[in-house]
Prior knowledge:
The chain is an alpha+beta fold. The chain contains five helices and six strands, in the order ββααβββαβαα.
Amino acid sequence: MQWQFKDYWIDTDIGKLDIERIHRFLDKESSWANGISKQLVEKSIQNSLNFGLYNKDSMIGFARIITDRATFANMVDVFIEPELQGKGLSHYLMRAIDEHPDLQGIRRFTLATSTAKFLYKKYGFTELNNPSTMMERYFPNIYREKNDSSN
Length: 151
């Protein structure tokens, strides 16, 4: 699927994604996936619904939705190129995600974020309704630990 916004467009075609850029962002620039391997990034993309944000011939933003396309979705790995932040591009990305037919009627749509809560609130995200019912297994340094042990 594709959406057009002024000089930008969003596409869910995996073949158009700049995997190198996504990997570089996650591995070097993100706070949540430092050390992740390119192979793992590729596998995660293959098993998700992906949204690439483009201008001219360049991918300038990305979001990945882990979903069964029926009842549950979790938004992860969202980024806009740093020099283009503050131009409303994240709203284009969120609108496309909101409009995607496979994400309509989802009972629970989650995300974890330490930044941009103001953006996600505009699209209906709130603090957990009942945090005492949520549990997790969380290994924040798993990619670095795997890379350290393989050296």
